[in-house]
Structures are given as structure tokens and as C-alpha cells.
Design goal:
With 843 residues, the protein is mostly beta strands. It contains six helices and 42 strands.
Length: 843
Amino acid sequence: MHVLRLPVLITALLVAATVLAPVVAAQEATPVLAAAVAATGRITGTVLDSATRQPVPYATVVLLSADAAAAKPITGVAANDEGKFTFEKVAAGTYRVRAQYVGFTALTRPVTLTDGATVAAGTFALASGSQQLADVVIEGTKPVVEVKPDRLVYNADQDVTNAGGTAADVLRKAPLLSIDGDGNPKLRGSSNFRVLVNNKPSPTLVSNLAEALKSIPAEQIKTIEVITTPPAKYDGEGTAGIINIILKKGVDRGLNGSVGGSTGNRNTNGNASLNFKKGKLGVSAWAGTGRWYGPQQSTRDRIDRDSTGAVLGQLAQRGKGRNNGQWVYSSLGIDFDPAEDHSLSLAGSINYYNGNNDQDLFNQYLAADPTNNQLFTRATKNLFSGFNGELTGTYTRTFKNQPRREWSVLGQAALNTSKFGYDFDQFDNSLTAGPVNEATYRERSRGRTPGGEYTIQTDYTHPFKENMTLETGLKAIWRTTGSVAHVDAFRAGQTTDFEEVVFRRTDFAYDQQVQAAYATYSFGLGKKFNVSLGTRGERTALQADFRVTDTKFNQDYFNLLPNGSVQYKMSEKSSLRGVYSRRISRPFIDYLNPFVDRSDPRNLVYGNPRLNPELTDSYELSYNTLIKEATLNVSASVRRTDNAIEMVRFSVPTDSGTITSQTYANVASNAFYMVNFYGSVKLLKDWEISGGPNIEYIVRKSPALGIARRSGFTGNAGLNTSYKITKTLTAQAFANYSLPGPDLQGKGSPWLWYSMGLKKKLFKEKSDLTLNLSNPFNNYWPYRSSIDTPTITERSEWRNYQRAVRVGFTYRFGQAQQGKQRKSISNDDKKGGGGGGQQGGGQ
């Protein structure tokens, strides 16, 4: 296991550290009314909810004359995500500052400013109440993409092309993200990241990410946060970073909700939500169900060789079929504030999906020895399902006289079970499948992966000064999972019925415990620099039990994961930051499961329960700037991983010819050199455009596989644009193209995805009617990949039928208000199907 020595760690923290600093004042406080009087004074402050001591994002703050009779405001700004506001270039004098937000009682206080001074107006703790904003109205919507110092935020609820879609449709449009041909997301070209939902993991997402994403409707997603260098409060997992899916929360005043649905040629869904807030109690509920469907087609051509290069055989496979499935998702949240500075919340969710993948496979193998030739057609039905139930409880303690001081305790219990299996009928020496009773060989398999996860954590934040904060916390996770499977076979003329193939039985149990502690100290150096230094210690203990062979093994290891950040504020509109972080990836059930999937007899797939974790060192330098209506983020980064977990393919000679096996192993050393450009700009008042390219140079080495060096360039570019045609009609379009990249044993596929949509507001803007088109000019995209090793040369193609049309309708009732944000658990510490945080304690 690769461990850096302490001096190297300290040097890395001091030399290559990075920052998380406040958003520049020009971004936090944009004047929207009359310009302030030209001067050099500044007025700052913060707007909080008096009951929860949480920020009130986008609260309206106006600067008024000291004369109460003068009702017209001088200027106004909107508070940022942290509730902070700033008035720039204010002349010396006496004023009134008023903070207000729908559903809260306005608060006004006097402020006196001298020439060139900066005055802190203090904290405006707004109490719940009803109020009309008579003095000033600040209207506007968030941009589709926001560039922030520590993350990129994709505001999915502002993108009309998402209506009626799923989480997979939304993820492919977020900055730095892409979806491959199998439906799996990638972050800057890597699948080694964590996916969180409301800052906590979903065990279902880990077990089968591509399918589970289909069960989260796009209407439920508020934002997608992309964090490439997470701080110490997040679990150490996810070497490429964290993708955080923030779902909409409906803790609003009074009774309100929505009903909606959509239909199209690729999916159909219906959903409803209901929210209520009265006094100290708030309730939020959501439920939805849907289906997906689509054809599929694949080809595979392979040449097998021996160690001398002599051809052993050639394989040709052609597949055609259809994938269908359905999902049900529901959630319930209860918030209760028994007293000021004390908050309790209870949140639960249920997520279930199931489906089948039917395929007719034509298989022809021509061997060097003709006695090993093989020709058959196989009709296969693959079955899958998953269930995830989660319950999370939170207690949060705030402190009235110290707005940024907070202590929280969180607990979570999650049940995750999934089932898998297949049935196939094989017809030897036949070009087509016939009646079942004519099959020469039949096989069926059923398996399940039971699982449970229990977490408890506590986090504490203590502000010493305005620019000096200590964050610390403890966390413990207990996981149980495994795999139980059996295989039954029937061979015409040899058996009278299905009989179990005993040697292929699997009974595997896997337990994992993770304990962690972290501390982060953030402080300012003068007026230009902000520094954050932290470290996280994680202990892992695991036990595996192979019940079929009665063998066991245990493993115990400790990792110190330091990180640091430094930000230099070049001006009010520009900043430069550097980051260093060390992260860990522990394999989870998909990588560990020893069950051998033989649904394709020439291509076996199984996991490796003896995998070790991989460690990654990341370095990043980024530049952020705001130029009038445009924002720009440019970053350069390096990510190095030793002992990397990679998917490997190798050939296995058998009596019936050569087959290939696919599994995972710690066999590589990888380096990624990346440059990212991402920006957004308003070309016209109602026309916004965002996007940018991502360029990578990848170097892979694997002495274990005899690969001295495999390297090359790859990259992708995305573009998202929206235009407000009228007050009630909006058009949007999106496109993303990716170049092929070098894999350890081959090469990936290029791909293209584009979509366009219209949204019309109806019935006094209480309803939305949407029309979306995806890839209208091509019926499918051929995802082509290759494998080249000394013994295998393979070319494969998988056709993704992605042309889609979708119509959706949503009706809202009641009056919505900004909901409170609660803490949540983030167990983002496993490498598997996919990984921060908008609000939440130490992770």
C-alpha cells in the first residue's frame, strides 16, 4: 500500500494546497435597482432564519435613506447562497438597511458610514411571518450553470429540456460529466467518483448505478454539484471527485404541492408532491412511478492467439433485443423545531426498480482445430431488481450569538437488497432460435445481494473570528453485504429436468467497518489570502467469508488523507486557488462479488474479493473571474493513482476453444493531466449560454500485464443555451461530444448527445407544458470500443437508440417558499457504480 511520508505530506500541503473562499463580492451582491452613489464605502451583513440560524439565500436587502419618510430605496442587492450581502461604493452618511424575504417579517436597522470605511451591519435574523415587499422587488432566475470557487453547480430546475426525464438525462448535461454507452456516468473521463443524493449515498446507486439513475425523476432534481477536490469533512472516497444530486425540498408555508406526468417513446412517468409547514412542524412528501423501454443491438468480433501469436480461433457475435423496466420512488421528510437554536428532522425514502433485458445472440466460433468450432443461437432473458429503504435522523444545535457555530448528530439506517438472474435457451448449429422444447441446452440462474448499512456521525463547527474557523467530526459506518446465487442446467437427451450445477454455487458474505475523524482549520492571511488546512484519518476493517469453500480472510488498514487549499483574491471579481488532496477508493460489491456470470459463454464476468484499496494524490490550480455578465473558470490538474483497480480481460483455453474472462485487479499506475475551461455568459438580456471543453492526457502503466506505457489525449466539450422567447415561453438546447480515450487494454468510444426543448407556462404560471426532443437527427449512436492484448484483439459495437420525443405536464398548487436545508449523511467512501455537499455537516 502506497503511503507518503510525513515530510512529503507537509510539503504537498504547503506548496500545492488549495482553497475554498467566499465568492467574490461582485458575485454575491449584484445591484438590481438604481446604482449607488459613487463613493468608496462598503456595507456588509448576513441574513439568517431566526428559528434555525440557517442562511436565507437570495433574501432581498435594500439600502434606504435615514429619513423614514423617504420610502424609495437607494439601491438593493440579493443575498448569496450563504445569506451574505455587500453594498459597494456607498457615500459617507447615515442610512437604513432592510432585509426581507417572502414568508418572513422584514428587519430594518440604522447604519452610519464614514468615507472609505467598511461597516458590518451585522446579522439580520428574520422571524417567520407574512409580508408584502412594497419597497422593492428583485426578480430573476439562477443561471443554468454557476461557477463557484470550490464547485460547479448545474441548476437542473432551470433547464427546460429535463422535464419528464430521469437523473441520467440530467447528469449528462452537468459540467465535466458524461454518460457512456452503458448508461454509466463519468467525471472528467473517470468512473472513480462518488454519487450522493442530498449529501448522502444511496446503496441502490452503488449496487447498480446505471439502472438506479432511471428511477430518480428529473422533476425531483434541483441542482447537480460537481466537486473535483472535496475537503476533509467528506469521506475520503472518490478519486475523481464527488457528484451531489440535490433533490427539491418542499418545506413551505401552508399547504402546497404539484402533480405531473410525461410520456414518450423511451420513458413514461407520473408524480405528485405535497408539502405543509405550520409553526414548528414541517412535512414534505413525494411519490412517483414510471417505466423505460428501448431496443438494443450489439456486435463483437474477436481473434484469440496463443503466447507466440498464433491464431487459436475467431469469434463473431451478433445480438439484438430490448430493455424494459419500471420504478417506484417515494420520500417523506418531517422537520420539528422544539425551541430556538434546536432542530430535529426525520427523513425516509423507498426506491424500487425492476426490469428485464431480452436478447437473441448469434454466436459463431471458428477454431484452429475444427473440432472446437461452435455455432449456436441463444435466447436470453436477463432479470434484475433492487430495493433501497433509508431512514435518517438529525439533531442540530445552533448558537444565537454565534451564527456560524454549530453542532450536529446524525444517524442513518439503510436496507439494500438486489436480485439478478437469467434464463437462456440455446440452439446448437442453428441460425435462429426455435421453440423452447427444441433447445439443446437450457440454463437458469438466480442470485441476490443482501445488504445493510448503519451510520452515526457528529460534526462541530467553531468560528474564532470572521475569517477563522475550525471544523471537526467523527464518523462510523457498519456495512454488511454479500452474494448468494445458484445455477440450474438442462441438456436435451442427458437430463430429464433442470439440475443444479453445484460447483457454480456462490455463497459469499462481506462485512466492512469504517471509522473516521477529521479536522479542518480555515483562516485568512491579510486581505488577499484565505487558507484551509485539514486532514482525515480513516480506519477500515473487513471480513470476507466464502461459505461454499469454508474459507475466510480479514483485512485491517489505516490511511491518513491530508488536504489543503490556498486562495488568492486578485480583485473583487477574480481569484486564484490551488488545491492538494489525497483520497482513497475501497472496492464494493460489484468489484468484489465472485459470482461468475456465464450468460455469454464466450465472455465470463466476475469480481475479485481480494482487491486492495487504491490511493490517489490530486493537485489542482484554478482561476475564477467575473466579467460583467460572464463568468469563467479555468483549471489545470494532475491526478496520480498507484495500485489502481482496473477492469482486465484475459483469455482462457478450454476443451471447446478459447474464452475470455473479465474481472478487476490492482494492476496499474495511472496519471491524468487535465485542463478544463467552463464559463457562462448572457449574450442578450434573455439569452444565456454556458459550456466549455475538457482536455486530458492520460498515461497508464501496468508491469503486471506487460504494459510499459499506454498514453494518449482525450476530451469532451459541452454547450448549453437557453432563450426566453416571451415571459411564459422558454427554449433550450444542449449538446455534448466526447473523443475516444486510451483504456488500459484498449480504446474507448467517441459519442455525441444533443437535445432541445420548449416550456410554456400556463394558468397564471401554475402549470408547465413541455416538449423535448433528444437526438432527432440520428436514430442511434454506435458506441465502438476495442481491446488489444498479446492474446486478444477485439472490436465491439453497442447501439444506443437515443432518438426520443417526450411531452410533459406539471400543475402546482399553493404558494411555495424557500425551504430550510437540513444536514444529511454522506457515506461517499466506496469504489463501485459511481460520489459534495450543498449543506451538511462533516462527512
